[in-house]
Task: structure prediction
Amino acid sequence: MKRFVEGTDRGQTTLFPECLADWIDENNPVQVIDVFVDGLDLAELGFDRVAPEATGRPSYHPSVLLKLYIYGYLNRVQSSRRLEREAGRNVEVMWLTSRLVPDHKTVADFRKDNGAAIRKVCAQFIMLCRRLDLFAEVSVAIDGSKFKAVNNRDKNFTRAKMERRMAQIEASVARYLRQLDSADRQEPSDARTTKTSRLKEKIAKLKEEMQRLQGLKARMLAAPDQQISLTDPDSRSMATSGRGSGVVGYNVQVAVDTEHHLIITHEVTNVGSDRAQLARMAKETKATLERTSLDAIADRGYFSSEEILKCAKADITVTLPKPMTSTQSGSASRTSATWRRKTFTSVLLESGSHTHSQPKNMDWCCAAI
Result:
């Protein structure tokens, strides 16, 4: 292989640095993770097993697992099994965990058992950013994302889905009964007997399925939102941007600093619409930043007079576009046109708890759907 860049012989003996730290320079992000976690009081934050038991098998210190969890968060490695593999082959993780390789179940249990404490760690990080004056400009962007749950769409039932499924079963039963009537008019034979037996089995299975659906329907109607999910009970069916598409999952609300793009606060909800989330998220963000006022930006999915008024009363200035309606001027079709300039509305509070709109022209591009 002349005239090509050649690698070394795989059988060649090489000597790695005796010190693992030689592979990690001072600007590596794992240095920040290490210093940040070592500066936390994990017992005060509520982590389990900070103090070791006197007897039994030694456990991993929570700081080791927290460092591994944060590293996975920063590098988009969410799976506990993948984190276990990274701990055994990734030099950065080897340095961060002092070459410890926790089992994937240990990582998963740590994440499950210390959810509240991990949220407090996020709050500590926000406090650190505030001390570093990274939130000097008190302006945030609020948006929601749909996250798919571990729940198949066929195991989620709404009123419409239930009625559609039961109608399909009734139509199938009627079709099989017609086929039975047709078979009864035929001359007796082994083929007719086999076909009749098979059709009766199908009808019996469909009736069992109908009885099961009747039981699920009672549970569904008893639920507050008349919707149930069998695998993940808290997940809900939500519409997505695609036409005719949807996902069974959660709506994760996030408030992000507009300058450094740092997540300030987040909340997981099973409400598919963003319409009622604006005031709550804006107030939580304001409380987290410990500010007396706040500027918030959101999309038209958050436009609600009640929510905007709540924000105004809390000294939060909201900038968001008005929703598209059929009564708005212009006859351009939403599916075929591209708008180059839009008017955003900033709603402020005046004396007497009345609001007024302050239009702001902002350049933006809305691509055709």
Q: What stands out?
A: The chain has a mean pLDDT of 84.
